[in-house]
Specification:
The complex is a heterodimer. Chain A is mainly alpha-helical. Chain A has helices spanning 2-25, 32-40, 54-62, 75-86, 117-121, 184-187, and strands at 103-107, 127-128, 136-137, 157-161. The longest helix of chain A is centred in the N-terminal third of the chain and has 24 residues, at 2-25. By secondary structure, chain B is of the alpha/beta class. Among the domains of chain B are: 2-32 and 113-289, Rossmann fold (3-Layer(aba) Sandwich), CATH 3.40.50.11540; 370-462, no CATH class. The relative contact order of chain B is 0.12. Classes of the chains: A mainly alpha, B alpha/beta.
């Protein structure tokens, strides 16, 4: 009886120590699912989902607080990828403009007064400039989030669609016209 | 015939109609000098060349007008002497029909060469020699236009090269430019091959030529006498001229999935590329012209050695003009070429054939039927793929699954579409799927960059906030920090400290 109690206590003690060690040694920093969701999101940091950036939105999805169809820049493909990852049903995108072309912000440098308001709004530091100096947008870094447009006091920032070039052009899926199985004459 | 026994046939392929006799009966004609040449700065795979001239500049024939940018790139040269009239976007031969940056040169008719310096390739360090070729704008002339200097550098990819293959198969119907080049300029090709062999030091050099070109085989065999290079006639079976298929056919080695022939110790070049290497090394002439087949529904089909930048319309004109009933102008052959949007586009390094197609040459328009899973495409596929599965996944936009079925091993040869009894445009689906996957990868890279920059910004904001608080604490010790700046919205997050102290 006593031997059994000692043996069980020893076993429990050893297991407890092991588990305690493992909990410290193999501690998971943060929620890995958040990383995975964040990797799918387009990182425009535009806030159109109602959260201040892509990571907060990813955290909200992981916590079950947000729907997966709130990200217009991610498009239907993004929703599908999220649904696949999380095992939820894909939903139609919750936005008015579905097929919006990719946009890029452009500063009309003639009218810029150098107020730095857009610099502070840009989530990816893609605007170059300083107080009372002309600002310009680093096109390669711009995500097209439109967050710089509203703060501009002189309305000198415009969104322009990204033009298609030879290097961005893509072959499209073949379009196969549907023809009546029986020619019109024969059917008549 | 003894040589045929040592071949290792690849799976699939097709016996296609040849249509070679239309254009291979007459010698290569020199091209007529056009009044205006449009030279695209992106004629190769890799980065676009950087323009080195401005409108108004006088250029000499062979002068570099586009400088290679980055490792995978090639130089662009003025094809004739004259005046640069514009450096701007012009239509180029591309399936999209979109314009690209070109240098427009008005020829002065004098054809004044720049100073040409032949190079003693044996005296040069291999890396210097590769630089000479890169600055001479040498790219693969078989159609892919990959910079040759890159392929002539084994550095890191493999220790040594087993086999160097010269590709004179020219398997695609209608095209005969390599055939004529081998018949007429075999000695030049072999001279270029010698330079390539000097750089790569292969254990053997093989020249693969389809057996339907007996004159070319004879000419090349004569030119190779005493060099140890071996001419191997191969059966006429499309696509024996595709790099990986030719490697398999001649050496029995399979190129790994998403790999290159060099991974199995084989490197492959087109015969026309070897010829341009000879011109660059032994004559100091950069790549400014190429032999192009003009055939199909034109009055006198043939081969022209034309300056790059010559409009297609003028090449067709030189071949007697269009016959009636031309429906489509194709660059490349009927199997792998693409339809052009206009004939006012310039000749580029990649253009081996201009095919004016009438209804007779084009496959009759057939309505597309559902896939019946007959497996004819599997029989025909020279890359040992399952085209019907690729089609299924590409159509359903399941690109990762298409990738699992080795979509990127597809060489887009068109054999599957050719044999499909339901007339499904299979290759179009594969091109679509490949392009979508590349675009997705680019998007991912861009998103990753944006994520990193956003992260860096958040860290910077946090750091600045702490620095400000520390400063305030120093100024007023004991007091709790108040609002950090004159205007919190403006002060916060400003990358420039001047703006926060400047309301």
């Amino acid at each position: 009886m006593i031997a059994a109690m000692i043996a069980l206590s020893a076993l429990a003690g050893v297991s407890g120590l092991l588990l305690g060690f493992a909990a410290i040694r193999f501690k998971v920093e943060g929620d890995p699912i958040v990383e995975k969701i964040d990797a799918i999101l387009p990182q425009t940091q535009c806030g159109q989902c109602g959260y201040p950036g892509c990571r907060p939105y990813a955290e909200a999805i992981a916590a079950g607080e947000a729907e997966i169809n709130l990200c217009p820049p991610g498009g239907p493909n993004g929703v599908a990828a999220l649904a696949d990852l999380l095992g939820r049903d894909p939903k139609p995108l919750n936005a008015e403009h579905l097929d919006k072309p990719k946009m890029l912000a452009v500063i009309d440098e003639q009218n810029c007064i150098g107020c730095t308001l857009c610099l502070q709004a840009c989530p990816v530091d893609a605007i170059l400039g300083a107080a009372k100096q002309m600002h310009t947008i680093i096109a390669r870094e711009c995500t097209g989030c439109e967050l710089c447009v509203a703060p501009c006091p002189v309305d000198c920032i415009h969104m322009v669609p990204v033009a298609e070039t030879i290097s961005t052009w893509k072959w499209t899926a073949p379009i196969i016209p549907i023809k009546p199985a029986i020619p019109a004459k024969a059917a008549a | 015939m003894n040589a045929l026994k040592r071949l290792f046939p690849f799976h699939g392929g097709l016996k296609t109609v040849r249509h070679k006799a239309e254009s291979n009966q007459s010698p290569i004609q020199p091209g007529i000098l056009p009044a205006r040449l449009t030279v695209p700065l992106r004629q190769h795979i890799g980065a676009m060349a950087k323009p080195r001239v401005q409108p108004g500049d006088r250029v000499l024939k062979g002068q570099m007008i586009g400088q290679p940018e980055g490792y995978i790139s090639a130089a662009i040269h003025a094809p004739t002497s004259g005046v640069v009239t514009a450096v701007e976007s012009r239509p180029v031969p591309h399936p999209s029909g979109l314009p690209d940056l070109c240098v427009v040169i008005d020829s002065d008719g004098e054809e004044r060469w720049m100073d040409r310096q032949p190079v003693d390739y044996r005296a040069l360090h291999p890396s210097e020699l590769r630089n000479v070729l890169r600055n001479a704008g040498i790219v693969g002339l078989g159609g892919a236009a990959f910079p040759s200097a890159v392929k002539l550098n084994l550095g890191g990819q493999s220790e040594w090269l087993e086999t160097l293959i010269l590709n004179g198969a020219e398997c695609e119907p209608w095209i005969t430019c390599d055939d004529r080049l081998m018949r007429e300029r075999a000695a030049g090709i072999v001279a270029g091959l010698r330079v390539m062999a000097h750089l790569l030091e292969p254990r053997e050099v093989l020249i693969g030529i389809e057996a339907d070109k007996p004159e070319a085989i004879a000419a090349m065999t004569d030119a190779c006498a005493g060099t140890g290079y071996e001419v191997r006639p191969i059966p006429t079976r499309y696509p024996s001229g595709s790099g990986k298929q030719l490697v398999k056919l001649l050496t029995g080695k399979e190129t790994p999935v998403e790999g290159l022939p060099v991974d199995v110790g084989v490197q492959c070049f087109n015969v026309a590329t070897a010829y341009t290497v000879h011109r660059a090394i032994d004559h100091g002439e950069p790549l400014i012209s190429r032999v192009v087949t003009v055939t199909g529904h034109v009055r006198q089909p043939g081969n022209i050695e034309a300056l790059l930048g010559t409009p297609f319309a003028q090449l067709v004109e030189q071949c007697g003009g269009y016959r009636d009933g031309v429906e489509r102008l194709i660059m490349g052959g009927p199997m792998m070429g693409f339809a052009l949007h206009s004939d006012e586009v310039p000749l580029t390094k990649a253009a081996n054939c201009i095919l004016a197609a009438s209804a007779a040459e084009l496959a009759p328009e057939q309505s597309v039927m559902p896939c019946i899973r007959c497996g004819a495409c599997v029989e025909a596929c020279p890359a040992d793929l399952l085209p019907q599965q690729l089609y299924w996944h590409a159509r359903a936009r399941e690109f990762d699954k298409a990738r699992d079925y080795h979509l990127f091993s597809c060489i887009e040869c068109g054999c599957c579409s050719y044999v499909c009894p339901s007339h499904i445009p299979l290759v179009q689906y594969y091109r679509y799927a490949k392009n979508e996957i590349w675009a997705q990868e680019k998007e991912k890279e861009k998103a990753e960059l944006a994520r990193r920059r956003h992260q860096a910004r958040l860290e910077r904001l946090e750091r600045e906030k702490q620095e400000r608080e520390a400063k305030l604490r120093q100024k007023a010790p004991g007091k709790a920090p108040l609002t950090p700046g004159p205007s919190p919205t403006r002060g916060e997050g400003s990358p420039d400290p001047a703006s926060s102290s400047n309301p």
